[in-house]
Specification:
Strand content of chain A: 25-35%
Number of domains of chain A: 3
Number of strands of chain A: 17
CATH class of the largest domain in chain A: Alpha Beta
Distance between the termini of chain A: 49 Å
Oligomer: homodimer
Largest sheet of chain A: 11 strands, mixed
CATH architecture of the largest domain in chain A: 2-Layer Sandwich
Radius of gyration of chain A: 24 Å
Number of helices of chain A: 15
CATH topology of the largest domain in chain A: Dihydrodipicolinate Reductase, domain 2
Structural class of chain A: alpha/beta
């Protein structure tokens, strides 16, 4: 069995190293040795003498390599949209199974690639794309296939989780925690993709697609980042036994699915609450299996390579058996993705209010007017410091945002100090 | 595709119900419908009218059912050693793949059954046996196959975890917490199998076998239960930022594996520390993937049936593809299981000592004499209340127990108040 490796950066180099180091184990698992037929790189003149492979394997002709008769499998770890998309499409059209770690491409073009895999009678595996080494694909697609997943809550971005953890631990502001994350290398020089939730949204699309056996486009994922997170939000959450996390939330509804990424308060006793620092975790609620959680490193070259190797073994074994993982006759749902306004959630609302009798009555009437019932109310402070903190029962997001809109117009309310969704209760 | 269901108790009834309810999904996943060919039960005269199956499917002739030409797969959920062993052996000898949730049988006879599966060219799947619905088999055997697992720490028994959690939360004694667990139905009338660690040891054998691709016999697992756990141990752990859990610990050593079940202190910040109540979790350290954790319900009829259904889909797909999961040519390790004395661990030792100068020196010399170095020492109390609490660095278990033996002979030591291993640091 021979594979073409496309890309030889951080992940690719690790794949080469691990395939060499664990070659015997891989051969035993597959039933025959797996060799590297060639490695496509952008430039041949880089020093790769540290890698345990014959230098003649490197080529700049990726398409030629993919199409070679002796290549059985294709492993894409180059990243980016093009030429990765063309490479993968070419491999699948040739009936060659593909393993990829390319989150961006899958989020943009997943349905087309899945269709291409079916059409070509080939496998498309991407365990490493959703959460690096955390096994998600097999648990979601295989272990739970006899089950029905109702909800997934995930911490799927290490940078934002590090920032939330630090703010919570030290009382730091968002900008202080971000600066620290940058210094430590947890945040990139341009942290937009992480802190504005783009990375988490791409993973949310993949995870929701896996969990619900449907296709969720990146553009259908509602997204809010953590840029506006205030130390006072975190303190307020803590005082009520909650912590703040950037969550990806995917739920199976009666008439579709809801997929969103935003900061949220969860109970401090929730299994996700203790997932700190750069770690990731995905919490799953299934009808029969109940509550499950998968925890691990959500990034890193070696960790990602570990997941890629697991996939290589799987597609190699499928090829030997003459089967594909997701047979063409398998019916996939095509579930509508519901707009954020229809998402069912709870709100934590903090108001700076005028200190006078009747304020709570007017605020409560505003919630009632939009059909939102209140779970808890705390009044505190006096004079200019008077505050109301309210937590609602579950309602549609639209009802909640309409309520907040109207609250901000009340003369009794100086300011809507913060609004955050409450999940996992 | 037709299956024979052996047993129709709590889990079997759920399998029947879920196969009916989710039949279309299962058919889509496998590529063809899966039907129940027959259900072997001990007695035909029980009322099973609530189950959505044709009553003529029930039979007391399990062997006849297994051997029927139209039966492709066999699902054993009857439990116990015999006749389950004969049934499974018969099915495998006929080349029919088997899904089982039978932890006791696998722990007693796993190697022979695996060999029978290989000889018969059939699959033997048992996701539900190790930790009910928590997906372990696929992550350990498939996702991580390109990796090397170094260590597994697991909370794999809900009853003991509930008791440990309650003792920790309320300061209750072991007998009070056990009484409460019994009242709530978390502990059986005869709780021996749980609290003395037999159930956890059987799971430890399965998990270690999966993680290290070897065979670990139940008899090779070192086992201590929680019967002697004292409220003071838990308080002492808490004062140092640790919690006490009954752990199953499997480690890959240079020259073999070590598998043990005993109460241990772990840091309160360890991901396992917050696994409370009846929940289970398995924490894995792999060379490339790093730290992973799998969390969920470790028991329950529906949860177990969910795992069984996942396995049914897997073996049915393998059969359609004409492959087995663990091909006969796959090399399995046959690693020696090391005795407890050679396990590498740390100890937390609490001593009631004579309040006089030089006691610490004598105690420290005793540790040094056995080559055990100390990480931390706390002295507290005066007169009859004088105490020394010591935590060691890593050493062989035998060195540590020899040290404790000698400490108990010192005239400066009134009593070795407690000794507990420290893990996960």
């Amino acid at each position: 069995m021979k594979l073409a490796l496309l890309g030889c950066g951080t992940v690719g180099s690790e794949v080469v190293r691990l395939m060499r180091m664990r070659g015997d184990d891989l051969a035993a698992r597959v039933g025959e040795p797996i060799e590297i037929a060639g490695i496509a790189v952008r430039r041949l003149d880089r020093d790769r003498s540290h890698l345990p492979v014959d230098p003649s394997l490197f080529t700049t002709d990726a398409l030629g390599l993919i199409k070679r008769d002796d290549v059985d499998l294709v492993v894409e770890v180059a990243g980016g949209i093009e030429p990765a998309r063309t490479w993968i499409a070419t491999a699948l059209a040739e009936g060659k199974s593909v393993v990829t770690a390319n989150k961006a491409l899958l989020a943009e073009d997943g349905p087309a690639l899945s269709a291409a895999a079916k059409a070509g009678g080939a496998d498309l595996y991407y365990e490493a794309a959703a959460a690096a080494a955390i096994p998600l694909m097999r648990p979601l697609r295989e272990s739970l296939h006899g089950d029905k997943i109702n909800r997934v809550l995930g911490i799927v971005n290490g940078t934002t989780n590090y920032i939330c953890s630090q703010m919570s631990r030290t009382g730091a502001s968002f900008s202080e925690a971000l600066a620290e994350a940058t210094d430590l290398g947890y945040a990139e020089a341009d942290p937009t993709a992480d802190i504005d939730g783009f990375d988490a949204a791409a993973k949310a699309a993949l995870i929701a697609s896996l969990a619900f056996h449907t296709h969720v486009d990146l553009g259908e994922v509602y997204r809010e980042g953590i840029r506006d997170l205030k130390a006072s939000d975190i303190a307020s959450a803590a005082s009520e036994g909650r912590v703040v996390k950037l969550l990806c939330i995917a739920t199976r509804e009666e008439d579709g699915v809801s997929v969103r990424v935003h900061p949220a308060m969860i109970p401090a006793t929730h299994p996700l609450a203790n997932v700190d620092g750069a770690y990731n975790a995905v919490f799953v609620e299934a009808e029969s299996a109940g509550r499950l959680m998968f925890y691990g490193a959500g990034a890193g070259g070696t960790e990602t390579a570990s997941a890629v190797l697991g996939d290589i073994v799987a597609v190699a074994r499928n090829k030997r058996g003459g089967i594909t993982a997701f047979p063409p006759e398998a019916a996939y749902s095509d579930l509508p993705v519901k707009p954020i306004g229809e998402a069912r959630t709870r709100y934590h609302v903090s108001l700076d209010v005028v200190d006078e009798p009747g304020v709570l009555a007017r605020v409560a009437a505003t919630f009632a007017h939009h059909g939102v019932s209140l779970a808890t109310v705390h009044q505190s402070g006096q004079g200019d410091e008077a505050k109301l903190v309210l937590v609602t029962h579950i309602a549609a997001d639209q009802q909640l945002s309409d309520t907040v809109e109207e609250l901000s117009q009340l003369t009794s309310v100086h300011q809507v100090a913060s609004v955050m969704r409450v999940e996992g209760e």
